[in-house]
Amino acid sequence: MGLVAIAVVVAIVVRAFVAQAYYIPSASMVPQLKIDDRVVVSRLAYDIHSVKRGDIVVFKAPPILDTGHANGGGVGGFFRSVGVALGVAEDHTVLIKRVIALPGEVVSGKAGHVYIDDEMLVEPYLPPGTVTSNFGPIRVPPGEVWMMGDNRGNSEDSRYFGPVPTKTIVGRATWKVWPPWKASFL
Known about the structure:
The protein has a single domain (2-185), classed as Umud Fragment, subunit A, CATH 2.10.109. The chain contains four helices and twelve strands; from the N terminus they run αββαβαββββββαβββ. The protein has helices spanning 2-17, 45-48, 74-86, 158-161; strands at residues 19-23, 38-42, 56-60, 94-101, 106-110, 113-116, 119-120, 135-139, 144-148, 164-165, 169-178, 184-185. Strands 1, 2, 3, 4, 9, 10, 11 and 12 form an eight-stranded antiparallel sheet that branches. Strands 7-6-5-8 form a four-stranded antiparallel sheet, with no helix packed on it. Strand 11 and strand 12 (184-185) form a beta hairpin. The model is unreliable at 68-72 and 83-90 (pLDDT under 50).
């Protein structure tokens, strides 16, 4: 029994401070991440370096989304929390997107592309022919970043909810671990 308790404590510490698995519930990051994929998110990445353009990050969902799907309480809530911790259940309180613009930059969408400070952003992670809707220009405030899904036609992202405070970032997605035959570093 003591060994099980130690294992549980170690798992909780790792999840809280080092890394956590997350389940991908939507198509907003297709083709990089598909529905039902699992990723490991480093909670230490931004203790080592600052947020970089192109990083795929998990962050707390902005209040405007108000998913209304709390992970719940009681026995059901406990099992849901365990599922979330293992990356096999959806966590309705977080989103996963790509960092597009950094604090102080002016971001806009025009002519099907993203522009940062009036220069077209090269996005090799997008499939050829991807079109980005028109938006902006918007200056990203200090301490915030602009997030977008790779599936530009099917992503509620900063075009909808605005810039995201960096303090709400949970961590950087570093590995796709499920399905195992498609495991890769991100």
